[in-house]
Amino acid sequence: MFSNEMADASNFVKGVDTSFMVIFGIISFFLIGITATMIYFVFRYRKSRHPQAVQIHGNNTLEIIWTLIPTVLVMVMFYYGWMGYKPMKEVPDDAFTIKSVGRMWNWQFQYENGKITDTLYVPKDRAVKLDLVALDVLHSLYIPAFRLKQDMVPGKEQFMWFIAGREGDYDLFCTEYCGLSHSSMTTSVVVMAEDKFDKWYIDTTVVAPLISDKPGALGLLIVKKNGCLACHSLDGSKIVGPTWKGLFGTQETVVTDGVERQLTVDSAYVLNSIYNPNDDIVKGFKKGLMLSYKNELKEEDINEIIEFMKTLK
């Protein structure tokens, strides 16, 4: 039922799979047993064989049996479930901590040395703790191969931890419906050998040489990294926010404190829209769907985004 190749993907796989198989085995046994008994009773006590109904009185022994046996079975299932769950809340003191941020509709992972990625990079055979932060609505971080899932509630401290046991790429996605582009809120966990991870982690050099010298290339990288394209299309289509195609330099009708007015989409407008997104709401769109990026984007980042917007003629 489960892939052997994933059996050591994390330290929690064995416990979760064992719990699942025990519970699945018990409920399967009773599903088959009860269904077979029902079918037997349909034929054994059909009307043609028993045209006259007979009153059946209680049986204390039977009552005790079918109370005790389910109680024991439920406690067995609870035991395996608890033994699989309990270690998930016991984080080792030396765990490597990564801040994991979920927002509509992308993931961002912030490392203690200042690195920020949209893919989760972790070392193999080392305890990793994820501090989970939801910036807007409910999210839920799920890594199927690791058998880990944790809901993320805005304003509430949540965490999960694991020890990855196999190198490779694993799916990571949101399992709490969080709006229009919930299904696209996916990324990967990349498990690396510890020496390779340390080399990657220590290397804080700018990745500019890897970026094309095409105008707006760095801005495109920034908007992809921060999930901007989940709400703003580049082809003119309408999604959660206004399309960016041909937007820069045009006139937009916005609603400011309930009053409609015309504004030019210039650098000041873009800066204010990113830092204070609920000041001026473009007519036809809803207020409150975008949160401020004041703590995520510097002004130089926004300038690069503006250069990218200028290329979208």
TrEMBL record:
Q: Which cofactor does it need?
A: Cu cation
Residue ranges of the Cytochrome oxidase subunit II transmembrane region profile domain?
1-92
Q: Which family does it belong to?
A: Belongs to the cytochrome c oxidase subunit 2 family.
Q: Known CDD domains for this protein?
A: CuRO_HCO_II_like_2
- Highest taxon, organism lineage: Bacteria
The opening ranks of the lineage are: Bacteria, Pseudomonadati, Bacteroidota, Bacteroidia, Marinilabiliales
**Entry GO terms, CC:** plasma membrane
Name under which the protein is recorded: Cytochrome c oxidase subunit 2
- Write out the transmembrane intervals: 20-43, 64-82
Q: Name one GO biological process term.
A: ATP synthesis coupled electron transport
Q: What are the protein's UniProt keywords? A: Copper, Electron transport, Heme, Iron, Membrane, Metal-binding, Oxidoreductase, Respiratory chain, Translocase, Transmembrane, Transmembrane helix, Transport
Question: Where in the cell?
Answer: Cell membrane; Membrane
Please report a single Pfam family linked to this protein. Answer: COX2
Boundaries of each Cytochrome c domain copy? 214-313
Q: What is its EC number?
A: 7.1.1.9
| Species of origin | Ancylomarina euxinus
Which gene does this sequence derive from? coxB
| NCBIfam families reported for this sequence | CoxB (TIGR02866)
Q: Main localisation, per the record? A: membrane
Residues annotated as domain Cytochrome oxidase subunit II copper A binding? 93-203
Q: How does it sit in the membrane?
A: Multi-pass membrane protein
User: What does the record's cofactor remark say about binding?
Assistant: Binds a copper A center.
What does this chain do? Answer: Subunits I and II form the functional core of the enzyme complex. Electrons originating in cytochrome c are transferred via heme a and Cu(A) to the binuclear center formed by heme a3 and Cu(B).
Give the molecular function GO annotations: copper ion binding; cytochrome-c oxidase activity; heme binding; oxidoreductase activity
